[in-house]
Amino acid sequence: MAPDAGSQGFLAGNRLQLLSSGGEYFPALIAAIDAAQLEVHLETYIFADDSCGRRVAAALARAAQRGVAVRVLVDGFGAREFAAGLGAALSAGGVEVMTYRPEAGQTRIRRHRLRRLHRKLAVFDGRTAFVGGINVLDDFDDGKAAAARFDYAVRIEGPLVACVHATMRHVWRLVRWASLGHRPPAPDLLLPAAAVCGTVEAALLIRDNLAHRRDIESAYLQAIQSARQQIVISNAYFLPGRHFRKVLLAAALRGVTVKLLLQGRSDHVLLHYATQALYDRLLAAGVRIFEYDRAFLHAKVAVIDSDWATVGSSNIDPFSLLLAREANVVVRDVAFAGLLRSSLETAIAGAAREIRTADQRRRLWPGRLLRAAAYGLVRLLIGVTRYAGKHYTD
Q1: Structural domain total, the chain
Q2: Residue 298 is among the residues annotated as catalytic for this protein
Q3: What average pLDDT does the chain have?
Q4: pLDDT band with cut points at 50, 70 and 90 for residue 272
Q5: Which among 147, 191, 218, 374 could bridge 274 via Cys, Cβ 3.0 to 4.6 Å?
Q6: pLDDT at residue 6 is higher than 50
């Protein structure tokens, strides 16, 4: 049984639908945009000008044309070409478009530029919300993938929608304030509160650089420390700090089955090699490691014991846990956790390769040296940010 996490703000009475990759997510998202009558509020790290991005943009434009208030917030690094492309066309059609920390004309690497808006959130009429790790980006954007990018989101109805809406409105106002130079008034539109419509208990956890710096990490740690049977984590960029590793290793050593489903095909080689530098110690403690190699793995999810699960945008790496704005839903529900676990186990069985101790021993010393160097370089970069603290730098 996962821990009682009442302090994390669990709300009862929600209905959650697990969505796997873009094939399930984008039809649901576009249907929600087309059904909206009052407001569409979308927040994403990447909004690509590809077939998927153009479909979503067309739906947003249709909503604005029928009088719906449409607001789109993108990150200035992840979606740095959006403002001059799809964003400009949407603005011309009546959509409010803003950019979080624009990158135009900046070439110097500065600490504050690492504070990205990495969340993927959407709210419709204050009644339906989406939370997850899926950017507005075609699953097959590299042109070579034989399978869809592996990722998840959740569609939410019920009282938790108000929490998603509130954090989106808050960040929207902050960005408007930074853009305009003065605090803007709150939006005039008042939306009805979402009614109880299900039985699922869930909480929205965010990460920012003020009051919620470690909320997502703390939720993981509490659940792992309380685990009794099984921990399954799938994460695109897995580079936990010292304390997180200690807690995870302790779980494995006390007999908990620990499985990690990580990237086999990497889109960030430095982090991939740094992660592999951790494999020996994890394997020695009994952690089972699987690398997903059918397509890119972009998931940020976990299931612990029978009834605790999380889906969101936060990686278990220093950039998500120490710098970026992130958002995860934590769910306390046997059926939802079972569904996510089943999906992960299917991926492990059919699309992943298990890394074993014997595989590690066969690695040649140049490869081992390269991975150690990558880990050291990432640690150095973390130290440069001066946000790491002893849990990451020790």
Answers
A1: 2
A2: yes
A3: 88
A4: confident
A5: 374
A6: no
In a shared domain, residues 168 and 226: no
The tens digit of pLDDT for each residue in 115-160 reads: 899 999 999 999 999 999 999 999 886 555 668 999 999 999 999 9
Task: Examine residue 114 and state whether it is found in any structural domain, yes or no.
Answer: yes
- pLDDT beyond 50 at 4: no
The boundaries of the domain holding residue 250 are 204-393
Q: Are residues 166 and 210 in the same domain?
A: no
Q: SS3 for 326?
A: strand
Classify residue 243: in a domain, yes or no.
Answer: yes
> For this structure, is 305 an active site residue?
yes
111 and 41 in a common domain: yes
Task: Confirm whether pTM is higher than 0.85.
Answer: yes
Residues of the chain with pLDDT > 90, as a percent, come to: 70
> Which entry of 305, 317, 333, 391 is annotated as an active-site residue?
305
Q: What ranges in the chain are assigned the alpha helix state H?
A: 21-35, 51-65, 86-92, 160-180, 215-226, 242-253, 269-276, 279-284, 318-322, 334-351, 357-361, 365-385, 390-393
Give domain status of residue 388, yes or no: yes
* 125 labelled catalytic: yes
CATH number at residue 25: 3.30.870.10
Neighbours of 223 (CB within 10 A): 25
* Same-domain status, 161 and 235: no
pLDDT tens figures, 334-354: 999 999 999 999 999 999 999
246 is catalytic: no
| Tokens read off for 58 | 């067309």
Q: Is residue 73 part of a domain?
A: yes
Which residue among the candidates 41, 120, 272, 391 is catalytic per the annotation?
A: 120
Using an 8 Å Cβ cutoff, are 134 and 21 in contact?
Answer: yes
8 A C-beta contact, residue 213 and residue 207: yes
Query: What distance separates the 2 farthest-apart alpha carbons in the chain?
Result: 64
Q: Catalytic residue among 41, 118, 272, 391, which?
A: 118
Provide the pLDDT for residue 1: 42
Q: Which residue of the set 41, 165, 272, 300 is catalytic?
A: 300
Whether residues 379 and 239 share a domain: the answer is yes
> Is residue 162 located within the same domain as residue 253?
no
